UniProtKB/TrEMBL annotation, chains A, B:
Tree of life domain: Bacteria
Signal peptide coordinates: none
Protein name per Swiss-Prot or TrEMBL: Transcriptional regulator
Domain called HTH hxlR-type: residue spans: 14-112
Protein keywords: DNA-binding, Transcription, Transcription regulation
InterPro entries the UniProt entry points to: HTH_HxlR, WH-like_DNA-bd_sf, WH_DNA-bd_sf
GO molecular function, one term: DNA binding
Length: 127, 127
DNA sequence: CAGCATCCCCGCAGATACTG
DNA sequence: CAGTATCTGCGGGGATGCTG
């Protein structure tokens, strides 16, 4: 069993794990998606996304910037204006992310139904 | 700006957020991927994935089961044998996940390069 | 407006030991 | 072998206040 090769994505210390851990964050995908239509300001993202704190947003943006997925543009104005936009590299991640949203749109209800249907066994799973 | 509609995926309290938060977990995608080729035992997953603790694996499996993405099969044998497999619903998530791995395979190096290139500004981002 | 620093708490996740 | 229970720590992440 396990037809996975040693260099197979995802398992063990393969390159794909990097990406997963990059995406496997509450906000990463959401932020990237928020930038998918062009440059957006910090404050706009806050409202657009909804539910994210300034701290988490900045943190996420910094990480994405460090990973080369987005670019930061600070304009020397008052009041300050800072825009973020996808890099070409970052833009390539939008498609995969969009697939996730498509999946959600299609199967979201099914997941919710499963959740409602209640846990198979209340407790005591041994044996 | 923001050509996103109110019901648009990802932003605010849209359905896609459910999926993101489902996937936005260190192990969810990895476990699903591990099951993508057929039923796998608990212990096999541990070794296959590498780095996950029994506790986290069980926890992840339970959640996926609750969400209707995987199914649990416990065989009344000694020693006990338990297999997990994707449900049809869960199987539909493999494609999106695979896209992520494809992306990683293609762009993983670019991300690592960006990381090495160092942070744009060492410190003091204000202004 | 954007961002950093600080404080603080809750929960994730590892380690360990026990049961069926 | 599979799973649970308990303890513990570390860090994620919110709230707040200050700076440019």
């Amino acid at each position: 069993m396990s037809g996975f090769g040693p260099g197979d994505p995802f398992l063990a210390d393969c390159p794909a794990r990097l990406t997963v851990e990059l995406i496997a964050d509450k906000w990463t995908a959401v932020v990237l998606y928020g930038l998918s239509e062009g440059p957006v300001r910090h404050g706009e993202l806050i409202q657009l996304i909804g539910g994210i704190s300034r701290k988490m947003l900045t943190q996420t943006l910094r990480r994405l910037e460090a990973h080369g997925l987005i670019r930061r543009h600070a304009y020397a104005e008052v009041p300050p204006r800072v825009e973020y936009e996808l890099t070409p590299l970052g833009a390539t991640l939008i498609d995969p992310i969009r697939m996730l949203t498509e999946w959600a749109r299609t199967n979201g209800d099914a997941v919710l139904d499963a959740l409602d249907s209640g846990p198979p066994e209340p407790v005591a799973r041994n044996g």
